[in-house]
């Protein structure tokens, strides 16, 4: 709980540290971000509105910001909690926390956010700030890791930890549901609120390759109640065995991500 009495689920300083650590090699681990960014761009393709100012919020390496700059949008800002993540962005860069946006009201025609807002503690508050930073008629479009993402890893790790350590701790983050996402858009005051979900499945050689990828994309566990002690080697080994026995498809292991897309317009 912070000084205002808000219950904290995520350690935002740790989120920043994870992204700082991942920044140098993010491009090598960003397949999920690239796939979802392509879906966001595809969703925007059918919109006739011409954008003059765009904010890529939680930009990571600034891929979406670069896309809009290359499309000729006059004013494009890439913002992320990690200044190091923003280094590759070739637009205006702002180190900013999604929970405390530094932008004036009516600043942008479009705010996009790709796989970042699921680390926000006060998502209702962040959505209200996003709406206020949009001009009237401005569009908000975001993707979040949600639902039962990484269900294969969750199930395998839970059983392995119960078997080896006789107890469990929050190893993977809680995720927003589709129903909650839709309700939050409405409560934040967006017009035409829409939320839907897509599944993205990546394939890995083994569970250790998946964990390296999660670390490399800055998505390691940042739960405030996470265990501070390292996971025992036997738990990892049992997780790997259970994952392969239950979920292997040929030579590879699937890792399923459920992605919620949020869409709303400022009235």
In short:
The chain has 267 residues and is of the alpha/beta class. It contains eight helices and seven strands; from the N terminus they run ααβαβββαβααβααβ. The protein has a domain at 12-149 and 175-203 and 257-266: Rossmann fold, CATH 3.40.50.150.
- E-strand count: 7
Based on CA atoms alone, the radius of gyration comes out at: 19 Å
Kindly state the percentage of residues in helix.
25-40%
CATH architecture of the domain at 12-149 and 175-203 and 257-266: 3-Layer(aba) Sandwich
Order of adjacent strands in the largest pleated sheet? 3-2-1-4-5-7-6
> How many DSSP helices?
8
Q: CATH superfamily name of the domain at 12-149 and 175-203 and 257-266?
A: Vaccinia Virus protein VP39
Strand content: 15-25%
Shape: globular
Please mark out the parts with pLDDT under 50 across 5 or more consecutive residues, or reply none. Answer: none
